Amino acid sequence: MNKNKKLADLRHFLAHYALPPDRPAIPLGLPGADAVLGGGLRRGALHEVFASDWGAGGFAACLAIQAAGKKPLFWIRPDYEALEYGPLSATGLLELGGDPANLFLLRAPHADDALAAAADILACPHVGAVVLEISGSPRSLDLVASRRLSLLAEESGVTLLLLREGALPEPSAAATRWQVRTLASDPHDDDWGAPRFHAQLTRHRLGPLSDFLLTWDSEHGLFHEAKAHSGLVVAAPADRPAEAPRQKRA
């Protein structure tokens, strides 16, 4: 067996056993967060974002903008999510500092179809990032499915953000898991109106856990530390709590 064949077999082994290739991390911009993450968010991996309120989509969009860079960004949604949470806006992505020309929106009839579409897109190494929005706890999104998505992301180097709304954490192959809620803007802050988040790192396969107060800088595409503020944010509707599992449609 020659040297090149041995190297090819070793890369194949590393990819299938979820040992990360030597890819540069995605720095969030906040030194404390990047230090906990070992330099930043792991590229070519599965990351879960769970909603404590209705701001998790914004946090996932910010991470996706950082992960995609100049490459295409795919956002995949089953029909239920599109109806329940409203349409996505290319203008909103632009206001966050992303490039709408690189955004591709994909609607799927059901969660199964969305998972299949994500798997196909992850196989293309020319994609920058994929956001897969799945609410509730569909049977098709089990540990086996998350392992498959994780392996596909590892092999292609495409970062996958799994946005979970109205769901509770379950066993998965995610490299990180975030529990996110929005923070009120500080009217005395120079960055008044900039998106602010309380992001709890509740799962980290390669390091410690922590939580962060983050402000998104759309001009530079980075997070900064957010100052604690006692102001209130708009609560989720009482009849649709974000943590409640989604009811099956008739």
What can you tell me about this protein's structure?
Helix 6 packs parallel to helix 7. The protein has one domain: Rossmann fold (3-Layer(aba) Sandwich). It has helices at 3-16, 31-36, 56-68, 79-85, 90-95, 111-122, 143-156, and strands at 46-51, 73-78, 103-108, 129-135, 159-165, 176-182, 196-204, 210-217, 222-225. It is built from seven helices and nine strands; from the N terminus they run ααβαβααβαβαβββββ. It has a nine-stranded mixed β-sheet, with helices on both faces. 29% of the residues lie in helices and 24% in strands.
Short description:
This protein starts with a helix and ends in a 25-residue tail after the last strand. The chain is globular.
Which characteristics define this entry?
Rossmann fold, 250 residues, alpha/beta, 29% helix, 7 helices, disordered C terminus
Structural class: alpha/beta
Binned strand content: 15-25%
Low-confidence stretches: 230-250
The residue fraction in helices comes out at 25-40%
What radius of gyration results from the CA coordinates? Answer: 18 Å
Amino-to-carboxy terminus distance: 59 Å
| Name of the CATH superfamily | P-loop containing nucleotide triphosphate hydrolases
Which strand order do you get reading across the main beta sheet? 3-2-4-5-1-6-7-8-9
- Total number of strands: 9
Average pLDDT works out at 84
Please specify the SSE layout and strand pairing.
Blueprint: H1 3-16, H2 31-36, E1 46-51, H3 56-68, E2 73-78, H4 79-85, H5 90-95, E3 103-108, H6 111-122, E4 129-135, H7 143-156, E5 159-165, E6 176-182, E7 196-204, E8 210-217, E9 222-225
Parallel strand pairs: 1-5, 1-6, 2-3, 2-4, 4-5
Antiparallel strand pairs: 6-7, 7-8, 8-9
Helix pairs in contact: 6-7
